[in-house]
Amino acid sequence: MGKERIILGIDPGTTIMGFGLIKVVGKNMHFVQLNELDLKKYSDHYLKLKLIFERTIELIDTHNPDEIAIEAPFFGKNVQSMLKLGRAQGVAMAAGLSREIPITEYLPKKIKMAITGNGNASKEQVAKMLQNLLGLKTLPKNLDATDGLAAAVCHFYNSGKVTVGKSYSGWSAFVKQNEDRVKK
Asked: Top EC class per UniProt (predicted)?
């Protein structure tokens, strides 16, 4: 039996943050949990960011993940939406980095491709494939939770490959890899 590890997958959002956890034993993955943080009832953007940070810390402290896989924000039609998504992602990443957990970002197309073989798959197709792969009895009403789980499964599939996206093992690694983004 190989080394056991836990992967936390996060689909960041300021309306709903989806997350999923898998346990990897050797070359096998096992479903642990999927859920979401519903932020719709809050109008204060800064309060939403605080809640994302606190929930991510709570997940980390409860499940002790060895790695975090997070969906990278993508550019849609609305620049404001992308900015808010980027903030949500940054806050979730800061929570992981504050606990020294390596983080890897994946583009939505890469996650969909890893799960379904189609980078343009729908949320429903991704959810159904995860249901089959992990033996989930039911799917959640909102599919943001399965999107978080998909990020974790994508990371599992990409583990051991040479390039898995941008990886950070802590604040110093993040700063070193992003010197152009950090003021001195």
From this structure: hydrolase
